[in-house]
């Protein structure tokens, strides 16, 4: 966000066809949907959520400094005439209208990202790369749904050179209206994996839903697709049917347009040798894992397609850091030493869980340290859930994980499949597992905590940080 005005009140009202009330400011500096964090001069949108109705917090938001509030016509009578308000038939629909207006005024190169795994980390890598070469805007956190995408777009300053948007889904038909709002010049599909199986007939149906992102690519634009993925041919057919001008592949396959030649995996980073659109490049990524190295190929291909300098883009990847809950490392302090905490608690599916277990297997431990996995249920897997949880025993064994703590009824299937020597502890929910984990860890250990958001594994991360307060772990440079 720049320090300049984001929208004039007049432009906002026009875009949303809103009625104007009270003493409106000439302009607003940002957009908020949270009365607790709204900043002075921002516009507060009173969106109705699953739990709370934003209209209940309009006066709080204005008291906290909001320049104006956007409310629904049905709530107008609740508020005094003098309050600075823009009144619309529906607040979320008004935000969508503003997002469309934001896209119309943009002269930036726009990149959209979707995929079963790696959307947010890829979006953050793109942010890192483009920010080194011009004013860049990107979705915050995982704002990738029916309100997150229009909010991210409406927040985009007209002055930016590059803009990156994450687009997610768990049902068919969700991506198409969002990508047609964003209208990217380049779209990346990181991978297609068996996630959200509760809502799909199989992985092919998931691929078809992810392919909806191709329907919104601007004329002359490009699609960046994972050649190593089982659904590559299906996605490529979708891209061809959509008339995409350039279909760029990435992966370890020798035919890939962005090809991994070699990778050296380190505990906290990776060194990559690749060929990106016929250019040879060697670079360091500031986060660990082969999956991150693979997605960096898509990042550099997209950067080149959007007109960024490839060499500078590759150099910038060394500055990449994990997003919250997606591999952030903390040092836990004991009286006689330290341990490493890897926070993967934001979400989980079979593919991301296997990748996180692999990263844990590469983590450095002390002379008596252990590699400990603390795993919560992976949700929305439908009838395949028990088998997919049980199957995690294989990567746990392959990566020499010393102890596993399992949380939740689905993780019970993994617990029962584990060798007895790897069983650390089990509980039905994270609150009950918390004390077991806190008591079990020690100096030199590396502890990775992961599970779907609904598994509430962040509670265990917080408990460890409070019990053993330390500092953020440093990324060791490759020598």
Radius of gyration: 23 Å
Sheet of most strands: 9 strands, mixed
CATH superfamily membership of the largest domain, which one? Mur-like, catalytic domain
The main sheet orders its strands as 9-10-8-11-12-13-14-15-16
Number of helices: 16
* Portion in helices: 25-40%
Q: Please give the CATH class of the largest domain.
A: Alpha Beta
At the third CATH level, what is the topology name of the largest domain?
UDP-N-acetylmuramoyl-L-alanine:D-glutamate ligase
Mean pLDDT: 95
Short description:
The protein is of the alpha/beta class. It contains 16 helices and 23 strands.
Features:
479 residues; alpha/beta; Udp-n-acetylmuramoylalanyl-d-glutamate--2,6- Diaminopimelate Ligase, Chain: A, domain 1; UDP-N-acetylmuramoyl-L-alanine:D-glutamate ligase; Protein-Tyrosine Phosphatase, Chain A; 3 domains; 9-stranded mixed sheet; 7-stranded mixed sheet; 23% strand; globular
């Amino acid at each position: 966000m720049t320090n300049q005005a984001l929208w004039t009140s007049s432009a906002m009202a026009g875009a949303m066809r809103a009625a104007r009330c009270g003493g409106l400011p000439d302009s607003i500096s940002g957009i908020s949907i949270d009365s607790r964090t709204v900043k002075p001069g921002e516009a507060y949108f009173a969106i109705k959520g699953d739990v709370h109705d934003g209209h209940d917090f309009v006066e709080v938001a204005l008291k906290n400094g909001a320049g104006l509030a956007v409310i629904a016509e049905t709530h107008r009578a609740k508020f005094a005439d003098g309050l600075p308000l823009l009144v619309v038939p529906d607040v979320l629909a008004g935000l969508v209208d503003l997002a469309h207006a934001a896209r119309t005024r943009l002269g930036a190169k726009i990149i959209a990202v979707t995929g079963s795994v790696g959307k947010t980390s890829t979006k953050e890598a793109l942010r890192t790369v483009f920010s080194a070469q011009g004013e860049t805007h990107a979705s915050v956190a995982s704002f990738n749904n029916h309100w997150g995408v229009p909010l991210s777009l409406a927040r985009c300053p007209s002055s930016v050179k590059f803009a990156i948007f994450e687009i997610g889904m768990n049902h068919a038909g969700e991506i198409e209206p969002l990508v047609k709002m964003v209208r990217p010049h380049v779209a990346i599909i990181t991978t297609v994996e068996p996630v959200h199986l509760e809502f799909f007939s199989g992985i092919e149906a998931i691929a078809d839903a992810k392919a909806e992102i191709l329907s919104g690519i601007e004329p002359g634009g490009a699609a960046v697709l994972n050649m190593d993925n089982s659904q590559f041919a299906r996605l490529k057919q979708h891209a061809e049917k959509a008339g995409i001008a350039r279909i760029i592949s990435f992966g370890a396959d020798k035919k890939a347009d962005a090809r991994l030649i070699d990778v050296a995996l380190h505990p906290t980073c990776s060194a990559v040798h690749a060929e990106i659109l016929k250019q040879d490049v060697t670079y360091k990524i500031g986060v660990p894992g082969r999956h991150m190295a693979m997605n960096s190929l898509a990042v550099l291909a997209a950067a080149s397609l959007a007109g960024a300098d490839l060499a500078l883009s590759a150099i910038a990847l060394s500055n990449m850091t994990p997003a919250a809950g997606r591999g952030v490392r903390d040092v836990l302090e004991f009286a006689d030493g330290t341990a490493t905490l890897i926070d993967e608690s934001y979400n989980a599916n079979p593919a991301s869980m296997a990748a996180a277990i692999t990263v844990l297997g590469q983590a450095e431990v002390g002379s008596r340290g252990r590699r400990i996995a603390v795993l919560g249920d992976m949700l929305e897997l439908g009838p395949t859930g028990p088998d997919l949880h049980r199957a995690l025993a294989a990567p746990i064994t392959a990566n020499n994980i010393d102890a596993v703590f399992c949380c939740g009824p689905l993780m019970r299937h993994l617990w029962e499949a584990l060798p007895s020597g790897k069983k650390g502890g089990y509980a039905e929910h994270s609150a009950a597992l918390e004390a077991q984990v806190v008591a079990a860890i020690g100096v030199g250990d590396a502890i990775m905590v992961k599970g779907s958001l609904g598994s509430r594994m962040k509670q265990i991360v917080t408990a460890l940080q409070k019990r053993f307060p330390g500092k953020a772990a440093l990324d060791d440079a490759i020598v």
